[in-house]
Amino acid sequence: MWPFSPSYLTIVDEKKARQQKALTLGPPTLSSHDDKFTSATATEIVARIQKGEWTASQVVEAYIAQAIKAHTITNCLTEVMFEWAREQAKGLDEEFALTKKLRGALHGVPVSYTSSALL
Known about the structure:
This protein has 5 helices and no strands. The mean pLDDT is about 90. The protein is an all-alpha fold.
């Protein structure tokens, strides 16, 4: 017997709706301009931000566009945190504009986590 009551379907529907809303708030397509960000190494991203050539916000927008493209093809995203990522990037940009110092070794480098479980 399935251990969950049918109420889990409400939770699933709400989560799917939040996911779809978040996906619509992303850039519409990945541009050729974004490739310079998404093909850069973490070291290069940090160096270019430190030189003032790029901002964390520019980098995160390119990665969001790439994530949306990947999700469209593979349905790979479960937790969509684009707005949080934008807020973090904006905070890093504002801090760097004031201090001209990086917050840490991965300043402005987008990260994504995955988990797997053995069943």
